[in-house]
User: Fold these one by one.
Assistant:
Number 1:
Amino acid sequence: MDYFSINGLSRLDVKWSRLYNIDPNFLIPRANPHYELIMVADSPVFIQVGQEKYTLNGGDCLLLLPWEEHFAWKPGGGSFFWVQFSSDPSLELIDAGDNLTSLLKICHTSSNFLRTSTNEHAGKLIIPRLYTPSRRYECLHTFEIMINEFNKPKGYYHYRLNRCLAKLIEISAEDLLDKVMSDINLPASIITYQRLVEILNESYMLECTAASIERMLDRKYEYLCNIFKKYSGITINLYLQQLRIQRAKYLLRETEKSVQDIAFELSFENPLYFSKTFKKLEGLSPSHYRDKFQTLLSAGNPSLTKATAPNLY
Amino acid sequence: MDYFSINGLSRLDVKWSRLYNIDPNFLIPRANPHYELIMVADSPVFIQVGQEKYTLNGGDCLLLLPWEEHFAWKPGGGSFFWVQFSSDPSLELIDAGDNLTSLLKICHTSSNFLRTSTNEHAGKLIIPRLYTPSRRYECLHTFEIMINEFNKPKGYYHYRLNRCLAKLIEISAEDLLDKVMSDINLPASIITYQRLVEILNESYMLECTAASIERMLDRKYEYLCNIFKKYSGITINLYLQQLRIQRAKYLLRETEKSVQDIAFELSFENPLYFSKTFKKLEGLSPSHYRDKFQTLLSAGNPSLTKATAPNLY
C-alpha cells in the first residue's frame, strides 16, 4: 500500500475540477502534469493505472501522480469527480515498507509554533493512495461546491477552490490517523509546553530565569527543559537567544538605537556578549547587519522600505 | 484608510491564538514579530496603535503589522480574540491613495488555471486594516474553534488552525468585494475561456488548428484569441507551445525516446522546429536538458529520482 506525505504548509493549488461521466474516450490513456484526486460518484469505475487494474466503488478515492497514465480497462461504468492540483513543496510517495505508526507521530508539528520557526518545521499529513473516506458525503459535497465555483465563477473563487482541496486532504488525513491510532488526543505535556512557550514569548526581554519560570508553571525546571526539547527540538536557552536576536534585528533595522542600548534593552549581560550571540546565530555582527540592511535599502529595493516583511531578514 | 493585499497562494501559518480579557497589563506597549488579527468579543476595546487611538466595538477587526506596538490608551474594556500568523509571501500594505476598485479586479486570477502557470500568477485578496465583518458570528465562531484546537490539541491541529485563518481572511475579503462591487459574478466570457483552456489541455498533442477550435466552441477564432489573451495574458499559440514543451520535458526525463520521436509524438512539424521552440522556452536544447537532468540524477539528488516532482524542472 502506498501513502503520500504532504507538508502541512504546502501551497495547494487547484488547476481544474469536474464531474466525469465515463464515456468511450476513457479507454484512451491520458495523463496530465499535476496531481489528480479522483472520487467515485456512481460506481463502478474500471480504471487502470500503470499495470494496476482497479474496480472502484462509490466513495472510493484514488490519488494519481503527475503524468501518471490512466484509462478504463474495460468499457462502461459510472462517474467520478476529479480535481487536478499542484503542490509546493511536492507530495512525497511513501511505500508500504515504512512504518506507518511512526510516520503518524504528529507532535513534532509543535516546533512550528515557536516564533522563530520557519516553513520547513511544518508537520506532514499522511494520506493513502487509495482510500474510502468515512465522511463520504462531506467529500462529495466539497467536490460539488468546487464544480459550482467553476461553473459560476464569482470573486475570489480560486481561493475558495484551494480551501476546498485543503479540506479534502484534511478529511482523508484525519481518517487515516483515526484508523491507525486509537487516541488522537495529544499528551497533556503539550499543554505545559504551550504555556511555557507563551511565557518565554512574553518575558524574553526581561530577565527570564529558571527560578521565575519554575514559579510561573509550578513545575521543576529540569522537566520543563525536557518537554521543551522534546517538542521544539531546541533548548530553552537557545530559544530565548533566538527571540532576543529576532527583536535585536528589528531594532537594528527600524531604529537608530546604538548596539549598546539594544543589548541593554534586551537584558544581555554586556554588549560584547550580545555581539557574540548575534554573530553565532546570524553569522555577522550587529553593526554589519545594520550596514548591510542600510545598503540594501539605499539600493532602492522597494520591498524593504515597508515594515511589512521584517521577519524575512 | 489602509488595506492589505494577500497573495492567494500565500502560506498562512498560525503561530498562536487566544481570547484576551483585558487587564492592566494591556496598558504596557507590546509587539510581536508576526501579523496579528484582533477581533473584539466584548466591547469596548481601547487600543492605541502608533499614534492612532481606537475605540473598537463588538465584532470589529483590526490587523496589526509585525512588530507594531499596541496597548490600551485608557484602562478598562472587554475582551478580544487574537491570532498571530506569518505569511509567505508577506502581506502588502496599500494606502488609501490607491484606487480600490481597480485593485479588486480579480479576473486575472484566471491565468493561474493554465497548466503551465506558477505561483506568482495567483490573484490577490484585499482586506481592510480595520473592518467589521458582516458574518460576525461566523468569524467569532472560527476563533472559538481555534482556541479549542489550542486547548485540546488533536492530531493535525496545526493544519486545521491554518485552515481557520484562511477562512477568516476569505470572509473579510469577500465582504470588501461585496461592498465595493455591486456584481461579483464574473463575465460570461470567462466560461468560454474555461472551455477553451480545457480543449487546449486535452488536444495539444494532436494537431490543434484554428478551424478545429472554432468548430468545437462555435465561436470566431479571433474572438477566442482575444478572450484567451485577456484572461491568461498570453496567446493561444504560446500556451500550446508551453503545453507541448511541458510534456516534452517529461518525456526527455522519464523515457528514452529520441528527440525526433518526441517531436513527432507532439505534432511538431519537424525536429528542428521542436528544438528551436524548446530552446526559446527553456533556454537550452532538448538533448542538453536531458543530459543536465541525467547528471543531476546520477549525482544522487534523491528528490529527483521519483516521478513526484516533475513540474518543478
Note: Chain B touches chain A through 70 residues (CB under 8 Å).
Number 2:
Amino acid sequence: MKKPFPETLLNQIRIVMVRTSHSGNIGAAARAMRVMGLYNLVLVEPKQFPSQEAISLASGAVDVLENAIVVPTLEEALKDCHVAYATTARPRYISSKLHTVEEAAVEALQGIKNEGQQIAFVFGTERTGLTNEEIDLCQRMMTIPSENSYNSLNIGAAIQVVSYELHKAHKKTLDLPLIQANEATDELATSEMREGFYKHFQDILFQTEFLDPTEPKNIMKKIRHLFQKRDLTASEIHLLRGVLTSINRKISHD
Amino acid sequence: MKKPFPETLLNQIRIVMVRTSHSGNIGAAARAMRVMGLYNLVLVEPKQFPSQEAISLASGAVDVLENAIVVPTLEEALKDCHVAYATTARPRYISSKLHTVEEAAVEALQGIKNEGQQIAFVFGTERTGLTNEEIDLCQRMMTIPSENSYNSLNIGAAIQVVSYELHKAHKKTLDLPLIQANEATDELATSEMREGFYKHFQDILFQTEFLDPTEPKNIMKKIRHLFQKRDLTASEIHLLRGVLTSINRKISHD
C-alpha cells in the first residue's frame, strides 16, 4: 500500500468493505475514516469504483479514495493481516465471543503497538452483511451496540463509529491527553481578593436592605457557596468588583 | 413533546439542529438517533422541513421526523432545558473547559438519572457551526476528538457518534446504583430562568451606567461565562434575582 499519509499506528489498520452496492457509501466511508486519521481502504468487489458519487460524498477525503485498493476476494484483502474483525449485527456462532467496537478498538491498538500487527475491520454488503464463509476468514466478531438491529445502522455511520473508537484507542495508546482546555491563562483569585469581594457584596446588600445587618449569615453563606462552586479568577473578581462599585455610586449619588 | 417511543432516560435528551441547510442531513440525523434509542429532534429554522429527501435518508426512522419539533430560535428550543451542550470544532473561549463527547454523555446521563434533568445537544449549521451568541445560550462546550478539524465531520456522522456515546452511557447508567447528589433537593435552573437573570443583570448594569447600552456584548459575555462555570440552581437564581430587585428598588426610589 502506498502511504502518503502521516506515519501513525493507525496506518496498520485497514477498513475492508465487501461488495458495497452504493458508491456513495464508499465516499462516506472515506470521509468518516479520514477525519479520524485512518487512510487504508480496501474494497472487495465493489459494484462500482471509482465513481463520481463516491468522490462527491468523500468531501475532503479524495486522497483516501485514491489510496484505496480494489481486490476480487476477502481472502486477498486479508492476506498479510494478523487479526481481522468481522462486523455483525448479532452473534451467528453461539460459541464465538462478540466484542463491542470499543473492546475491539482497544485490543487492536494494543496488538499493533506491542506486536506490530496488521489489523482489518471488515464490513459486509449493505443489505445482508457478511456471509458465514466471510466471517470464517476473520478471527474476531465485533458489533456496535445499538437499540435496534445493526441493519438499521447505515454502513457509513457504522464506519464512522468504528473509526472514532479506533482514534480514541490510538490516543489512549499513545498515552496522550486529549485536547487540553487552556484554563491556565487566567490566574485564580487569591483568598484576599475573594474575601474583599464578599465583604463588598455584603455591604451592597445592607445598603439595598436586602440583608438585615443583624442576621446576614445564612444568605451570605449561600452567596459564598454560589461563587465558590468553581474557582473565580482574578479578572472575574475585578469585573465583579467593578459592578459593585457602579452600584455603590448609583445608590449614593442618586 | 408527544412520546410514542419506549420510556427511557434517553427521552430526556433532545438533539437540536440549528439552521440545517441540507434536508438530507435531517433524515440522516433521525436515523442515527433512532438506532441508538434517541427520539427527540428539535429543528431551529431548518431551510426546508418536512421534505422528501429527509424522509428518504431517514430510512426506518420516519417516526423520529414525525415527532420532530420546529422552532424559530435556539432560545425557544432550550426553554425548559437544564443543561445544553454546544458542539464545536475547537474552544472559542480560552478559559472554557471543552468536554469530549464521551465525558459529556456520561455527565448528561448522570444528570438525568440523579436529578431528572432535561438535556440538549446542539449542532450548528453545516458550514459554519454555531454562532458565538448561540454558544452563549449553552452551559457546556463539547467536541468530538478527531484527527483533523471537526469541520470535516459530516453533521449526520457527528450526530451518530454523539448518539452512540449517549447509548453507551445509558447502558452504563442502568448498571449503576442511583448516586445521591448532596444537593439533590435543589434543582438546577432552567435555561429560561438563567436568561431571565442575565437580562435583569444587564438592565441593572445599564442603570448603574456600568455598561454602555450601545455596546454591552463583551462584558455580558464575561458575566455569562462567570456564572455558567457554575451550575446555578433554581434557588440560587431566585436569590440572585432578589438581590437585583433590591438594587432596582434602591436605585429608583432613592
Note: Chain A has two domains: 9-174, 191-253.
Number 3:
Amino acid sequence: MDSIKSVAELDTPSDLKEAARKKVAESVNGLVADAFALYIKTKNFHWHMSGPHFRDYHLLLDEQAAQILATIDPLAERVRKLGYDTIRSVGHIAQLQTVKDNDEDFVSAQDMLKELIDENKKMGKKLRETHGLCDDADDVATASLLEEYVDATERRTWFLFETTRTKK
Amino acid sequence: MDSIKSVAELDTPSDLKEAARKKVAESVNGLVADAFALYIKTKNFHWHMSGPHFRDYHLLLDEQAAQILATIDPLAERVRKLGYDTIRSVGHIAQLQTVKDNDEDFVSAQDMLKELIDENKKMGKKLRETHGLCDDADDVATASLLEEYVDATERRTWFLFETTRTKK
Amino acid sequence: MDSIKSVAELDTPSDLKEAARKKVAESVNGLVADAFALYIKTKNFHWHMSGPHFRDYHLLLDEQAAQILATIDPLAERVRKLGYDTIRSVGHIAQLQTVKDNDEDFVSAQDMLKELIDENKKMGKKLRETHGLCDDADDVATASLLEEYVDATERRTWFLFETTRTKK
Amino acid sequence: MDSIKSVAELDTPSDLKEAARKKVAESVNGLVADAFALYIKTKNFHWHMSGPHFRDYHLLLDEQAAQILATIDPLAERVRKLGYDTIRSVGHIAQLQTVKDNDEDFVSAQDMLKELIDENKKMGKKLRETHGLCDDADDVATASLLEEYVDATERRTWFLFETTRTKK
Amino acid sequence: MDSIKSVAELDTPSDLKEAARKKVAESVNGLVADAFALYIKTKNFHWHMSGPHFRDYHLLLDEQAAQILATIDPLAERVRKLGYDTIRSVGHIAQLQTVKDNDEDFVSAQDMLKELIDENKKMGKKLRETHGLCDDADDVATASLLEEYVDATERRTWFLFETTRTKK
Amino acid sequence: MDSIKSVAELDTPSDLKEAARKKVAESVNGLVADAFALYIKTKNFHWHMSGPHFRDYHLLLDEQAAQILATIDPLAERVRKLGYDTIRSVGHIAQLQTVKDNDEDFVSAQDMLKELIDENKKMGKKLRETHGLCDDADDVATASLLEEYVDATERRTWFLFETTRTKK
Amino acid sequence: MDSIKSVAELDTPSDLKEAARKKVAESVNGLVADAFALYIKTKNFHWHMSGPHFRDYHLLLDEQAAQILATIDPLAERVRKLGYDTIRSVGHIAQLQTVKDNDEDFVSAQDMLKELIDENKKMGKKLRETHGLCDDADDVATASLLEEYVDATERRTWFLFETTRTKK
Amino acid sequence: MDSIKSVAELDTPSDLKEAARKKVAESVNGLVADAFALYIKTKNFHWHMSGPHFRDYHLLLDEQAAQILATIDPLAERVRKLGYDTIRSVGHIAQLQTVKDNDEDFVSAQDMLKELIDENKKMGKKLRETHGLCDDADDVATASLLEEYVDATERRTWFLFETTRTKK
Amino acid sequence: MDSIKSVAELDTPSDLKEAARKKVAESVNGLVADAFALYIKTKNFHWHMSGPHFRDYHLLLDEQAAQILATIDPLAERVRKLGYDTIRSVGHIAQLQTVKDNDEDFVSAQDMLKELIDENKKMGKKLRETHGLCDDADDVATASLLEEYVDATERRTWFLFETTRTKK
Amino acid sequence: MDSIKSVAELDTPSDLKEAARKKVAESVNGLVADAFALYIKTKNFHWHMSGPHFRDYHLLLDEQAAQILATIDPLAERVRKLGYDTIRSVGHIAQLQTVKDNDEDFVSAQDMLKELIDENKKMGKKLRETHGLCDDADDVATASLLEEYVDATERRTWFLFETTRTKK
Amino acid sequence: MDSIKSVAELDTPSDLKEAARKKVAESVNGLVADAFALYIKTKNFHWHMSGPHFRDYHLLLDEQAAQILATIDPLAERVRKLGYDTIRSVGHIAQLQTVKDNDEDFVSAQDMLKELIDENKKMGKKLRETHGLCDDADDVATASLLEEYVDATERRTWFLFETTRTKK
Amino acid sequence: MDSIKSVAELDTPSDLKEAARKKVAESVNGLVADAFALYIKTKNFHWHMSGPHFRDYHLLLDEQAAQILATIDPLAERVRKLGYDTIRSVGHIAQLQTVKDNDEDFVSAQDMLKELIDENKKMGKKLRETHGLCDDADDVATASLLEEYVDATERRTWFLFETTRTKK
Ligand SMILES: [Fe+3]
Ligand SMILES: [Fe+3]
Ligand SMILES: [Fe+3]
Ligand SMILES: [Fe+3]
Ligand SMILES: [Fe+3]
Ligand SMILES: [Fe+3]
Ligand SMILES: [Fe+3]
Ligand SMILES: [Fe+3]
Ligand SMILES: [Fe+3]
Ligand SMILES: [Fe+3]
Ligand SMILES: [Fe+3]
Ligand SMILES: [Fe+3]
Ligand SMILES: [Zn+2]
Ligand SMILES: [Zn+2]
Ligand SMILES: [Zn+2]
Ligand SMILES: [Zn+2]
Ligand SMILES: [Zn+2]
Ligand SMILES: [Zn+2]
Ligand SMILES: [Zn+2]
Ligand SMILES: [Zn+2]
Ligand SMILES: [Zn+2]
Ligand SMILES: [Zn+2]
Ligand SMILES: [Zn+2]
Ligand SMILES: [Zn+2]
C-alpha cells in the first residue's frame, strides 16, 4: 500500500499544483495516523491512571484526548478535498504512525505525563513542518487549520510540562 | 502481552468471583478493540464515499461511527472497575480486533454498505455472547450497558440492510 | 391479514432463533397496537375532562399520553430489527388492540381515572409477559426497553390509583 | 354514535351561531380522524421503507408524520372550545376517517410516495373546505389554525411529488 | 381627552382609508384597556386565591394573566402603526375599560372562576367584533393578530368553565 | 375601601408584630400601585416616542418598563405572606398611586426622559422609606427584596439623567 | 423570459383554479424580487452609514435586513407549491424588481432613512394587493403568510418614520 | 459530641469576634439539621400522599423539598467559612433537629399540610432569630443568605396555609 | 415500627406475587436509608476536607454525593409502586441504615477516601443482592434501575480506590 | 460607477499602504458580488430541484446557500474597514459578478450539481488570488477570513463532485 | 487627582445625605481598585503556576479571578449612581490599591496560595468596613451588593486556606 | 524588572529558535499590558459617558471593553507556551503600557470616541507588527490569534470613526 494515492474514482478537482499538493496530503495523512495513535495512548493513560492526583489527571487526559480526536475528521477531509485518499484502517494507522505504543503493565503517573510531553512536542513539530508544506503549495485552508492545532498542541505540552515539575 | 491482566498496582476491588469476572473483562476488551476498528472502517467509508447518494450515506456513516465511538469509554472503564487492564495502543487493538481491515483503493458505495452489514452483524453476536458471560458472573452493570449497545448495533444493521435492497 | 409476518423483501437479518424471535415480534406488535389505543383513550379523557380538578387532571393525562406515545416508535422498530413486519393502519390496530374503546357521551372524572387504572394495569402485565418471551429468545435489547416501560406504566397506575382514593 | 355532539355536561359557552358552529366542529372532527389515520399510514411507510434511498425517505416520512401528529391536539381542542365533543377512540377514528388503510405485505418506495401524495392532496382540499365553513361561522380562530396547516400539507405534497419524478 | 387621536407629530403614514382605519384603532385601544384591566383582575384572584385547589388555581391564573399581558404591546403598537395614539395612563385605562373592578374583601375560588368566565367571554366577543372592523378596513395585519388572541381567549374560557362544573 | 386589610379568610399566619407588620404591608401596597402606574407611563412614552433617537429610547424604556413590572408580583406576594390583602383592580391602583398620569397629546423625547427621572427618584425614596419600616418590623425578607429594587431604580435614574444632559 | 411559468417538469399538483392561482404566483414572484432588492439596499445603508447615530442605525438596518431576507424562502416556496416557477438569478431579480437601486457615493443618514420609508411603504401596499389576489384564488396559506409580513413591513415603516422626525 | 467546635485542623481564619461568631455557627448548624429533617419529612408526605389532589400536592411537596434541600450546602459552608465544624452524620442531625419525626402509618393529605405549616412556621422563626445573631456578630454574608431563606419559608407557609382552608 | 408495611390506605395494586414483592420492597427501603446516610457522610467529608488536594477532593465528593442523592427518589417511589410504604423520617433512616456514622473531630483526606471505599463497596454488594431479589419477584423495573446504580457505585469505588494509592 | 471608491465622507483610517489596500478592496468587492450571485443560483436550484434525490439535494443546496450568504457581511465590512466603499445594489452586483445566471426552464438535478461545481471551483480560485493580494498588502485580517472561506468552498466542491459520479 | 469627586457634569441626583454618601463612594472606589489589582495578581499566579497540582490550582485561580472581576462593574456603577466619579486608569488604580504587587521571578505554588489568603482576608475586612459606611449612609443598595461579595471573598479564603494545610 | 524573562523554573520546552521567539514573547507582553490599559480606559468612558447618546455609547463601549478583555488570557498564555514569563501586576502593566491614561474630570462623548480611535489605531499597528515577528519566528499559532484580533481592532476603529462624523 502506497503512502498516498489519488485514485481515479476519487480525484476531487483542485487548482493547486499537483506535486506540492501531494506533499501536503502525504504529510497530513501522517498527522491523522499520529492523532489516532496519540488519542489511544492518551486514553490508555486516562484509563490506567493511579495515585493521589487520580481524578485531576484522569480529567486532564480526557480533555486532551477529546481535543486530539477532534482534529482527525477535519484533517482527513482536507486530504480528500485535495484529491487524495486518506486513512483506511487500523493497519494503515500502524504503518504511518510515529507515536510509540506503550503496552507496559504499569506506568506511574509521573512517567505517563513525561511520555505525553514528548509525543505532543513531536506532534507540534510535525504540524509546523506540514504548515511549511502548505505555504509551498499555496494551500491556505489547510494552513489555517494547522495554526489552530499547533496552539492546542503547545497548550497540552505546557500543561503536562508544568505538572511534572517537582518543586511544589 | 497477555490478552487480559490484573496488575497488582491497578486491581480495583470487586466482590464478583474472579474466574467469571475475568472472562467478562477479556470479552469486553475484545469488544473495545473491535469498536475502535469498526469506528475507523466506518470513517474510512465516510471519507471515501462516492456516487449519487454521497451526502446521504456520508451522513449515515458519520452517525454510525459516532455511535460506535461512544461505546468505547464506558466499556473500557467497565474492565477497569472489574479490576483488570484494558486497551493500551494501536498495536493492542490490531492484536485483538476481529474486524477486517479494507485498504482497497476503490470500494463502491454498495460494497461499503454490504461490508458494514457483515461487521455489525458479527458485533451484535459478540455483544450478545458477552452478555451471556455477564449473566454467569452476576455482573448486572456490564450486562445493562451491553443491552443498549445490542439495540444500537441491530439498528445499524437494519439501516444498512434496507439500503442495499435493489428493488426501488 | 396474519398477525405477524416476515415478508421476503423486509427480512432484516438476525442471529436469534426464529421461533422464539417470532413470538417476541408478535407480542410486541400487540403492545404497539395497545399503546396506540391507550394513547387515544387517554387523550379522549384529556379532552373531555370536567369538574373542579379540570386543569390538574387535564395536565396529568397529557403527560401520561405523551409518555405512552413515546414507546411506539422504539417498539415498532424493534420488530423491524427482528426481521418482522409491524403495525400498518388504523384497521390493523383495531384488530390487535385489547384496550377497550369508550365512546360514552359523558364520563365523570372519577370514572375516567378508574378506567385508566385498569388499562394501565393490563398493559403492565403484558409488558412483563413480553419480557419473559424476550428472555426465552435471548433478545436482551427488547427486554431492556420493556424494563423501562414497565416502570413508567406502574408509575401511571400509582398516580391514577392514589388520585381515586376518597379519603382526603 | 352520532358524528357530532354537544353533551349537556360538556357544552363550553360560545357566542358563535349554533348551526354554522356545529358544521365547523363536525368537519374538524373529520380532520382529526384523518390526521390520526394519515399519521399511522406515514409511520407504516417510515417503518417498512426499503431500497437505496432508505435513510433519506425514512427521515422524510418521520418529519412528515411528526408534523401531522402536531395538528391533532390543537384541532381537537378547537372542537371542545366550540362546545362540542371530539374524537374518543380507535373505533371512532375508523368510523370518520377517509384516509385508506394499506395493509399490503410489500409496498415499493415509489408506491409509498405516490400513495401519500394522494392522501395529502385530499387532506389539503378538506382543510380548505373546512376553512370555508369557518368563514361562514365567523370562527376566525379555527380558520387561522387551518391556514397554517394548509401550507404544511401543500409542502408535504410538494416534497413527495418532486421526489417521484423519474427524470434525474 | 378624545377616545382616539392622530396627533400631527405622531402620524405614521398608512395607505389604509382613514375612516375605517380610525374605527380599528379606536376598537383596539378599547381592547388594550380591557387587557390591562383583566390582567390586574386575574392577578387579583391569583393573589387572593384560597382553598384546597390553591396551588392549581394560583398557577392557572398566573398563566392566564401572563397570556393576557402579552397581547398588550403588539396591540398598542398596531394602533401606532395605523397612525393613531394609544393608551397613556391608569386614568386612560379606567376611562376605556369595560372589565368590572372587583374590590370585595373575600371572593370564593368558585366565584373567582365564574367572574373570569364572564370577562373572558366578553373579551372574546369584542375581539371578534374588532376583527370585523379590520375586514372592513382591509387591515389584514391587525386581523391576523386578533385571530390568535381569539383562540387564546376561548381557551381561557374553556379551562375556567370546565373547572366550575360541580359533577365530579 | 380601606387602604390595608387582613380579612379573616385570608390571614396567613406570621410571627411578626402586627402593628409594624401592618405598616410594611400598607407601604408595600403603595409601591405596587406606583409600580403599575410607572409601568404604564413608561410604556406610554415607549409607544409615543419620536425623533432621531427613536430606536435607542424606545428600547431603553422597554427595558425599564419590564424591570418595573417584574417587581409587582414579588411585592404583592410579600403582602399576602404578611397576612394582608394587596392590590385588586385598576380603581384600587388609581386610588393609591402617587405617580402622575400624563395624557398630553405630544411629549418631546427630552420631556419624557425628564418626567421619568422625577418619578423614578420619588420611587427610590419610597422604597428606602419602606425599607426603614421593614427594619422596625424585623421583616428581613421584604427588606432584602427592596434593596435590590432600590439599586435598579437608581440605575434607571442614572441612565435617564445622563441622557438628558445637553453637552455632547 | 416570461414573468411566470408552469414548466411541465415542475408542475406541483394543486386543486386551486389555474387563472387565479397564476396571478398569485406572478405577484409573489414580484415580492420575492423586491425583497431581494430591498435586502441589498438596506445592507447598502447598513454598510455605508455614518454620523453620531452610527451604531444605533447600523443595528436597526441589520435587523430590518434580516427580517426582509427571512421572507424570501417561504414566499418562493409558496410559488413552487402552487405549481409555478420562481426566481432564478440576479438578472431575473433585476427584471422584476420595483425597488430603486441607489448607487450614490454618499447618502446622509437622514436620506437613507427617508428612502427606506418609501420603499417599505410601497412594499406594504404590494403585500396587501397580493393578499387580495389570494382571497380571489382561495389561497389561504399564502394569505396567512402575507398577513404576518404586512405587520413586519408596517413596523419597519413606523420605526424609520419616527426616527426621521426633527422635533427632539 | 459538642454542639459546635473549631478543631485546630479546620479553623478557617476570620476577623469576626469569636464569641458572637460562635453563636452564629451554632445556630446555623441547628438550621442545617432542621433543613435535613424537614426535607425528609416533606419527601415522606410527597411519597405517601393520597386522595383527589394527589398530583397537585405531590408536585407541591416536591418543589418545597427541593427548595429546602438547596439551603443545606450554602448554610453548612457558611459555618466552615466562620472557622467551625458543621453537620457530620444522621446521628448528628437527630441530635440537633427540632423538627418532629412522623412515622404514622397513614396521614391524611389535610393533616400532612397542617403539620408542614407548623414546621415551616417554626423554621421561619429560627431563621429570623439566627439573623439577629448575625447582626450582633457583624456577619453580613450569613445574614443576607438568611433573608432569602426567610422569604422562601414564608412562601411555603403561605401556600400550605391557603390550601388547608375549607371554604371553597 | 415494622421494617416494611402495606397500609390499606396506600396499597397500590400490583400483579407481582406478594411474598417476593415484599422482600424487594424491604430491601429497597434499606438501600434508601443507606443512600441518605452515605449522602450525608460524603457531604461531611466534602465539608471537612483539608490539605493540598482540597479543591480536587471537595469537587469529587460533591459529585459523588449528588449521584447518591439522585437514587433516593426513584428507589423510594419503586417501593410505593409495589404497594408498600417507604422511608418516613430521620429516625426511620437511623433505624435501617448500615452505613456507619463518623463524628470524629478530624479525619485526614486519606482516611476519608478509605472509609468511603468501604461504604461504597458494601453498597455495591447490597444493590446486587437486591437485584437478585428482583429476579425472584419478576420485578424487572426495579432490577433495571439497580443495574444502573451498581455501575455508578463501582465507578465511585474505582475513583476513590485509585486515588488512595501511594505510588505516584 | 467606478469599481472601487474611497469617498471622503466614508474613509475609515488605515495604516496599510493605499495602492495594495485598494487592490484588496477591489478584489473583495468582486467576491461579495459573486457570493450574492452564487447564493441566488444555489437557491434557484434548491427551489427547482426534482427527482428521486429531491429532499437530499434540496437540503444540501440549502446548507451550501446559507454558508455562502454568511460570507457576505464579513467581507463587505472588511472593505469598509479598509476605507473603501462596498456593494450598493442589485445593479452593482450584476455589474461585478462573474457567476453566470441560468434562467433555463428546466435543469436536471445532475446538470445543477455540475454547474455548481464549476462556479464553486472558480470561486475557490478567486478567493486564493485575493489571499495573495492580502499578503502583498500585509492585510492579515482579511487573509485569515479568506482561509476559512477557501476551506468551505473546497468542501462544497468536494460534496458536489462526489455526488455527480455515476459509479454506484 | 483627588480620591473622590462629584464633577458638576456627572452628578447623578441622589436623596442620600452628601457627607455619608461621599464616604461610601470613596470606600467603594478603593474596593474597585483593589479588585483590579487582585484580579491581576490572581491571573499572575494562574499563569505562572507550576508543580504536580498545576491543573487543579490553575483552574482554581481562574475561577477566583473571574469572580473578582465580576464585582468591578457593579461596584463602579454604584459610585456613579451615588453621583461621584469612579476609577479612570491604570495609574488611578495604582494610586488607590492596597493589594501588593508581586513581580518575583518564581513563586512556589504554596507561596502563591498563602499570599492570596492574605489579600482575600484583607479584602473581606474592607468589604465589611464599607458595609458599615453604607449603614451610616442609609445606602441599602450598595450594602446588599457587598453582602454577596463578602461571602464570595470568605469562600476564596476558605478554599485557599484548606489547600495550604500540610497534613494530608 | 527585565521586560522579558525565561525563568529556569518556568521554561516550557519549545522547538522555535530562541532569539526570534523571545522577540515575539516580548512584543506580546506589551500587547497584554496595552489590552489591560485600553480595557480600563474603555470602561472609564463607559462609566463616565453623558449626553443624548448615553445608552447607545455606554453599550458600545461595554461591548468593545469585553472584546478587548477577552484577548488577554489567550495572549498571556501564548507567552507561557513559548517558555517566557508574562504580566504579573498593575505596576508591571504601568511599566509596559503605551496606552495613555486619561484622568480628566470631564471628557465629552465626542472626545471620548476620538481618543479611543487613536488608541485602537495604535493597537492595530502593534498587532500587525507583532504578526511580522511571528512570521520571522515561524510561530504560526500566535500569528493566527493575532489575525483575528487585528480584524476586531479594525472593527472598533471603524465603529468609533463613523460615529464621530458630524455630517448627519
Ligand atoms: Fe492564517
Ligand atoms: Fe438491563
Ligand atoms: Fe436491562
Ligand atoms: Fe388568518
Ligand atoms: Fe389570517
Ligand atoms: Fe439584604
Ligand atoms: Fe391568518
Ligand atoms: Fe441584606
Ligand atoms: Fe435491565
Ligand atoms: Fe490565518
Ligand atoms: Fe441584601
Ligand atoms: Fe490563520
Ligand atoms: Zn466527516
Ligand atoms: Zn473515561
Ligand atoms: Zn422511527
Ligand atoms: Zn391538549
Ligand atoms: Zn413595544
Ligand atoms: Zn405570583
Ligand atoms: Zn427552502
Ligand atoms: Zn459544597
Ligand atoms: Zn418523587
Ligand atoms: Zn454588518
Ligand atoms: Zn457597566
Ligand atoms: Zn488562562
Note: The domain at 17-164 of chain G is CATH 1.20.1260.10 (Ferritin).
